UniProtKB/TrEMBL annotation, chain A:
Belongs to the binding-protein-dependent transport system permease family. This is ABC transporter permease subunit. It is found in: Cell membrane. Coiled coil: none annotated. SUPFAM superfamilies: MetI-like. Residues 117-308 form the ABC transmembrane type-1 domain. It comes from Bifidobacterium platyrrhinorum. One of its GO terms (cellular component) is plasma membrane. One of its GO terms (biological process) is transmembrane transport. The lineage of its organism: Bacteria, Bacillati, Actinomycetota, Actinomycetes, Bifidobacteriales. Signal peptide: none annotated. CDD domains: TM_PBP2. Keywords: Cell membrane, Membrane, Transmembrane, Transmembrane helix, Transport.
UniProtKB/TrEMBL annotation, chain B:
Keywords: Cell membrane, Membrane, Transmembrane, Transmembrane helix, Transport. It is found in: Cell membrane. Its main location: membrane. It holds the Pfam family BPD_transp_1_N. This is ABC transporter permease subunit. PANTHER family: DIPEPTIDE TRANSPORT SYSTEM PERMEASE PROTEIN DPPB-RELATED, DIPEPTIDE-TRANSPORT INTEGRAL MEMBRANE PROTEIN ABC TRANSPORTER DPPB-RELATED.
TrEMBL record, chain C:
This is ABC transporter substrate-binding protein. Gene3D superfamilies: Dipeptide-binding Protein, Domain 1 (3.90.76.10), Dipeptide-binding Protein, Domain 3 (3.10.105.10), Periplasmic binding protein-like II (3.40.190.10). The keyword Nucleotide-binding does not apply. Residues 1-21 form the signal peptide. Residues 80-460 form the Solute-binding protein family domain. Keywords: Signal. GO terms for molecular function: peptide transmembrane transporter activity. One of its GO terms (biological process) is peptide transport. InterPro entries: Peptide/Ni-bd (IPR030678), SBP_5 (IPR039424), SBP_5_dom (IPR000914). It comes from Bifidobacterium platyrrhinorum. Transmembrane segments: none annotated.
Length: 322, 308, 543
């Protein structure tokens, strides 16, 4: 990033795809020079090379490592039991050993914020991954194939979209009443979440399909499927990454809605979403109880948005030279 | 194009049938017995309960119930709610209010989302890009009930700047703040989307070419960059209008707006199959039509996309 | 392109503004007119027919539109209204009811004996599918009117006989000393002749004989009542009318009270319980009320049976491990009163010092001791679950109860929320819940009988009534029969107290607290009081 104003010839990236003319035939050879000695690299390897040097990626990566650490080893951060709640402490002020004070039921807010990381992060991440994978695949196939495939898939998306989330969630979660695993929540969130990613993916793929490189690739004898996965999807990925990373936070909050309805995780499972929705009742008198889990949520979402931006820039070589 | 339109309209028939069947089945699968619940904590008189079940066809097998609903729906009779109100009247009361609210929220998120997204995308890395990032992040992380409730208390009750709740026939001013609350989360998404698209398109070859041709900066922006950046944004906006109408439950509750979101919520809790399905069908039509418009816009935005 | 898009957006917004503008002209101007009170309400769940109204949305306007044989003062004492006299025979199996002269419905027709008998038969008749029909089950001939398939809907209760225009008799199928109080319940209201011609139209625009006259019902928006000039009963309104404004949420209504857009509401949203009594923008009311909140442990739940020593010990231990003061104070913000017995402080005959009331007092040490004693009889280390419906705001209280049991008694407890009320009631009535579950009781008429017989008598068990825990105790049933045959309400109340002492030992349900009559009114309103139903006394309000 240091040299963005003055592209240096020595920084030309290996594997650059714009090949113009044999080097010795053109005076532009320095600019468009392709380092032929470098091994052929994929777009992903390329992206990784760029990422490593991006401060945005480093900062967000460090943050995510910290968050994952807290999620894996909450006991290292705090020794307080997040499920020990005593009404004597209800909405109590911060004190030694309890830096964030107590919530409405008299539970330690710090311990709950720490222990909530695991649930919230797993729900958010897993849902995002599933939604992006399924949504991209279905949307891309619809946009790429067009015709009756598109019609069929698009109409299925329409039907899914029309089901009220509340209704679907109650009925589906009823089937897993006794399970306390977070997978049931991930399943429901993903079941109703993939459609919007699919629509976005479809639009982007329809756009990318008509770009020159696709025509070129087809002309060079590439099969349509190879085209779709090697060229079109990677090029249509930017909006999907943006929506995916931004939605991560909303999945974490939606988990709370389900618990609140009595169909989500057992009430003994600590999660940010659950604590946020419980704290809303006393928003006017004790805003700090709401504040801490919200900040934890915001930092997590911010890390993933930054990470998403960095990855997206790395995948799109043109945008980074802007 | 005409043929394409016709085909899309014909496709709506199986979609509506499929969706109504699915939603009807889901309402049927809701645990509990709506008739028993009508008696509250009080003892249920089985003879009366049986009479009520017969009146609403709840004593018949699921598929018969659905077919009866369909048959009546063809004559525009959507049945009665458990409170004895014609479903069509309930919907007629709720939809106009919600359409008003949703359209206002939609305008709000579309205009501000795209404008802030462009500013942010053009000046990537500048301080106002960061400010816009932080604001959109806040909108995403702070739940709607907090923004809505806090806004109502401070702007409405304390400082009397906005109406506290909407009246029975809500006016533009009464719905303004609720619409902003409702549209705020989607606005954050649109800002992020627009920003990302603008920043990648601005580096494209055709922009350089256009500039090289001597085209003015403004023209480059509107005729090339924006046009090419809008496909994902339009997709998102297109599906959001339907979502805004169906999913305004929290906002409607906070500001006492008797709209579709609240009606849907209530009818699901009470297990009112006819009402839920009728609402869903209408929302589905909105959604399908929005998608059709979006697909038309694709072709307008990118002439290489063609529908035959 | 951008300009075009903006122009379209602006045009759409302009349309929205126009739509808004059109709407505003017709918006209600009720707050402007001098002495009309605006009150918080929810949309009625049924047509406004007294016998079909069993929830507060319809109950609030219904109570004001129809005058019954007796009316209740704010404190809950009954006095004759339309009735001149209600005279029982010796064993309370027949009542002779005389009604006053000169009562009229708002359509001008007179209120006669037949206005009552035909209305009661209509409600009792299963063909008409009226939700309050079980209230008439003690009247002779009720069982003949339950086979809806072979009824036309106009068959009459054989126990009701019209003597003359102002007199009728009621034959009971079993003695019922509380009948003279029961007839004050809304379902016992008289109906005009016009009702039977078109019940559906009547349900949309009811014609009554009460302190107020129906004006209009704008669905999901408001119900307007105006003062009935012909009314000369016990509760003559001091204002010119009541407009019930229908709200989506009590928080929105509270904000409107603060802003002066609404005059009165009978609840306080959870977000305001800690502040409403100090809030200078509202008038607060907060006194002990009549709604009793309990949780029930099924009487035949293993290790918890009400008829074994082990079960009784465990029930008492659980009850004593709950700190009710802390619940009402910290969780409910002081809008509830800790329970001391099974009725309520507003019920005639209430006492806070019955034998066994100690079982409802917090005593962690004693609780542990009793639990250990029970464990000595038979070891139990299962998890006790507490079921409730998640759509009714009961979560904080059950979270707190579970925490108290874990901390004070050291047992394994957990909540078991169910998403909707209908699912919860279905699980309760089908006896599918293997643990404790939420129970609450809002009285229909102010009498201990309404709390005790309906909830704990053997004859109300097994799905025949509201005895959802299937509690059966012969001694208790005997006292209930004695109370029904008692000579006076005072005598009956003494017997009810004895019956309660049995309940306090067996604890078929564990009383938690009484929801207070807690509400707020805008600062411009005068005469704000609340009655035994936890509702404002609408007739007394002025501004």
């Amino acid at each position: 990033m240091t040299d963005e104003t003055k592209p240096s010839v020595y920084e030309t990236l290996p594997g650059q795809e714009r090949y113009v003319a044999p080097i010795d035939e053109t005076p532009l050879q320095d600019v468009d020079k392709v380092d032929e000695s470098a091994p052929a690299t994929s777009m992903w390897a390329d992206a990784w090379r760029t990422l490593r040097k991006n401060p945005l990626f480093i900062i967000s990566g460090l943050l995510i490592v910290c968050i994952v650490f807290v999620a894996l080893f909450p006991g290292v951060i705090t020794k307080v039991d997040p499920n020990y709640c005593n009404l004597d402490n209800s909405l109590g002020e911060a004190e030694a050993g309890h830096p964030f004070g107590y919530d409405f039921q008299g539970c330690d807010v710090f311990a709950r914020t720490v222990y909530g990381t695991r649930t919230s992060l797993s729900v958010g991440l897993l849902t995002t991954i599933i939604v992006v994978a399924i949504g991209t695949l279905i949307g891309a196939v619809a946009g790429f194939c067009g015709g009756w495939v598109d019609a069929l898939l698009s109409r299925i998306i329409d039907i899914f979209y029309s089901i009220p989330f509340l209704l679907g969630a109650i009925v589906v979660l009823q089937m897993f009443r006794t399970s306390s695993s977070i997978w049931k929540v991930v399943l429901v969130l993903a079941l109703f979440g993939w459609v919007s990613t699919a629509r976005i993916a479809r639009g982007s793929v329809m756009e990318a399909k008509n770009l020159e490189f696709n025509t070129a690739s087809t002309a060079l004898g590439s099969t349509p499927m190879r085209n779709l996965f090697r060229h079109i999807i990677p090029n249509a990925l930017a909006p999907i990454i943006v929506i995916g990373t931004t939605s991560l936070g909303s999945y974490i909050v939606s988990e709370a809605t389900l618990s609140f309805l009595g169909v989500g995780l057992p009430t003994t499972t600590v999660s940010w979403g659950g604590d946020i929705s419980q704290a809303q009742v006393n928003l006017m008198t004790n805003p700090m109880v709401l504040f801490y889990p919200s900040v934890a949520l915001a930092i997590t979402v911010l890390s993933f948005i930054m990470m998403g931006d960095a990855v997206k820039d790395a995948l799109d070589p043109k945008s980074r030279t802007a | 194009m005409g043929k394409y339109l016709l085909r899309r309209i014909l496709q709506m028939i199986p979609v509506v049938l499929g969706a109504t069947l699915l939603v009807y089945a889901l309402v049927f699968a809701l645990p509990g017995d709506p008739v028993k619940a009508m008696f509250g904590d009080k003892p249920v008189n089985e003879a009366v309960a049986a009479q009520i079940r017969a009146e609403y066809n709840l004593d018949k097998p699921f598929i018969i119930q659905y077919l009866l609903f369909l048959k009546n729906a063809f004559t525009l009779d959507f049945g009665n709610t458990f409170a004895g109100q014609p479903v069509i009247d309930e919907i007629g009361r709720a939809f106009p209010v919600t359409i008003k609210l949703a359209v206002m929220a939609f305008c709000f998120e579309a205009i501000f989302g795209v404008v802030f997204g462009i500013i942010s995308g053009l000046k990537k890395g500048k301080w106002y890009d960061s400010v816009i990032l932080i604001v959109s992040l806040l909108l995403i992380s702070v739940p709607t009930f907090v923004t809505g409730f806090a806004g109502q208390y401070f702007l409405g009750v304390q400082w009397s700047l906005i109406p506290v709740t909407a009246s029975s026939n809500p006016t533009f001013t009464e719905l303004l703040f609720p619409a902003m609350v409702l549209g705020s989360v989607s606005m954050a998404y649109i800002i992020r989307l627009t920003r990302s698209e603008i920043s990648s398109n601005i580096a494209q070859d055709y922009v350089r070419t256009a500039r090289a041709k001597g085209m003015s900066n403004g023209s480059v922006m509107t005729r090339h960059v924006l046009r090419n950046s809008l496909i994902p944004v339009v997709t998102y906006l297109g599906q959001d209008l339907g979502a805004l109408m169906g999913g305004a439950m929290i906002t409607e509750q906070i500001f006492n707006i008797h709209g579709v979101g609240f009606l849907t919520y209530q009818s699901i809790l009470k297990g009112e199959g006819n009402l839920v399905v009728s609402i869903v069908t209408l929302l589905l039509l909105v959604f399908v039509i929005c998608n059709l418009i979006v697909d038309m816009l694709y072709a307008a935005l990118d002439p290489r996309i063609r529908y035959e | 392109m951008k300009k075009k898009a903006l122009a379209i957006a602006a045009a759409v917004c302009a349309v929205a503004t126009m739509l808004g503008g059109c709407g505003s002209s017709s918006s209600s101007s009720s707050s402007a007119s001098s002495n009309i009170i605006t009150a918080y309400a929810s949309e009625p769940q049924n047509p406004l027919i007294p016998g079909n109204t069993n929830e507060t949305g319809g109950g609030k306007p219904g109570d004001l539109l129809f005058a019954r044989l007796v009316s209740f003062e704010a404190k809950g004492n009954a006095s004759n209204e339309v009735a001149e006299s209600i005279t029982p025979n010796d064993d309370a199996t027949q009542y002779t009811i005389k009604i006053k002269d000169g009562w009229k419905f708002t359509d001008g027709t007179p209120v006669t004996a037949e206005s009552f008998t035909k209305a009661w038969s209509y409600v009792a008749n299963a063909k008409n599918a009226q939700k309050c029909s079980s209230f008439f089950s003690t009247i002779k001939g009720f069982t003949d009117l339950q086979d809806a398939k072979n009824l036309k809907g106009d068959e009459q209760l054989s126990g009701l006989k019209v003597v003359d225009d102002h007199t009728f008799t009621v034959d009971m199928s079993q003695p019922d000393a509380t009948f003279p109080i029961k007839v004050g319940y809304l379902a016992f209201a008289p109906l005009p002749e016009s009702f039977y011609k078109d019940p559906k139209a009547f349900g949309e625009a009811p014609v009554g004989n009460g302190p107020y006259k129906f004006s209009k019902w704008d669905h999901n928006k408001e119900i307007d009542l105006v003062k009935n000039p012909d009314y000369k009963g016990n509760d003559v309104p001091k204002n010119d009318g009541v407009t019930f404004k229908i709200y989506t949420d009590d928080k929105a209504a509270y904000a409107d009270i603060q802003a002066g857009n609404l005059d009165v509401m009978e609840s306080v949203p959870a977000s305001a319980t800690k502040t409403f009594q100090k809030d200078p923008k509202v008038q607060a009311y907060n006194k002990a009320g009549s709604v009793s909140q309990t949780f029930t442990i099924p009487s035949n739940l293993e290790h918890f049976q009400t008829n074994t020593e082990e079960g009784q010990l465990r029930r008492q231990a659980i009850s004593m491990a709950i700190n009710r003061e802390q619940l009402t104070d910290k969780v409910l913000g002081g809008i509830a009163t800790p329970a001391t017995e099974f009725t309520s402080p507003l019920t005639p005959g209430y006492s806070s010092s019955l034998k066994g009331a100690d079982n409802l007092k917090f005593n962690a040490a004693k609780a542990k001791e009793l639990w250990a004693k029970a464990d000595a009889i038979s070891k139990y280390d299962g998890q006790l679950t507490f079921a409730y419906n998640a759509d009714g705001g009961a979560k904080p209280i059950y979270d707190a109860i579970v925490n108290q049991l874990k901390n004070n008694l050291g047992i394994d407890a957990a909540t078991n929320p169910m998403p909707t009320f209908q699912e919860f009631r279905d699980a309760v009535t089908n006896r599918q819940i293997k643990g404790a579950f939420r129970t609450g009781w809002q009285p229909d008429y102010p009498s201990a009988e309404n709390y005790l017989f309906q909830l704990y008598a053997s004859s109300a068990a097994d799905g025949n009534g509201s005895n959802d825990g299937d509690y059966k105790n012969a001694e208790f049933d005997k006292l209930m029969d004695e109370a029904y045959a008692a000579k006076s309400t005072e005598d009956a109340n003494k017997i009810y107290q004895q019956a309660q002492e049995i309940l306090l030992n067996d604890l078929p349900a564990i009383p938690l607290y009484y929801s207070n009559a807690a509400g707020v009114a805008s600062t411009s309103v005068k005469g704000f009081e609340m009655n035994w139903q936890n509702l404002p006394v609408y007739e007394e309000l002025t501004k």
